[in-house]
Structure prediction request, 323 residues.
Amino acid sequence: MGRGGLRSAPSPDLRPEDHVRGEGPVTVVEYGDYECPYCAKADLMLASLPVRRAFRHFPVVSKHPRARRLAEAVEAAALQDAFFAMHDSLFADQGRLDDPHLWERVRALGLDLDRFEHDRRSEAVAERVSLDFRSGISAGVMTTPTLFVDGEVHPGIPSPELVARLGGG
Amino acid sequence: MLIEPGAPAPDFTLPDQDGNEVSLSDLRGRRSVLVFYPLDFSPVCTDQLNVYQEVLPEIQASGAELYGVSVDSAYAHRAFQQQLGLSFPLLADFNPKGAVTKSYGAYLEERGHGTRALVLIGPDLEIEWSHLSPSPLEIPGANLIFDALEHQPA
Prediction:
């Protein structure tokens, strides 16, 4: 790669490949990792708000050794239309994140385990996770979770002010 | 005030986390980024250096090496580096405390440690770029390093 390959760029608005759910007037892009307890909390807080939200992977492996592997597992589940099912499953129980636990989750979600095991190690899935990570670096993400609310950056767990602004009680 | 582009890089010799001395003259011939940060093991620093570690291969591919600098001792640096899994050196500006950090204008007298600043030293040991964080709680994004490297001559 050439020099400056990760130079500044605004956090992209929703892209066709983003994983999006929820409906609302405001769009929230959340950068997070599945081994980060604060991300689980932020994700849960967003779930109760009337917003459209996208999740992007920001695995920081030197801090969370399993983070990239887990992001790849969720992308592999996405290839079987189970992105948010696996996403929710991991955030709901961050004490069980090793391979046998992942296989249990795959079975419980009714996914094809052989296909999952193949896909999570594929180049395409690794690239997909890197795409999110690199977009985060360019947007200046330095901690997880980091939320972009209509393009405006909010590092950390959403503040009460932000929650209120997003329509929370 | 933080050192500015065009100034000669102030000379230094500091031990790294393994006690090996690193001098300014060792940096001649390539680009180096000095990452001044407050203290080992403080939560915000931890995120900063972790994220830089994630993009270290890209920083190196862009032609620069990274050096962390704080007032902690080499022993603390070693434990911090191991805990975070960092592979770039951490320099101990420990004795006399903060002297190098002061010479680069990145010392907070009232707190007794460095502030958060990035300094790009060119191959000829001249300052090419510097960035002072508005507050120690605000972490300079890795993107700023890439922006700075992109604007330097090859």
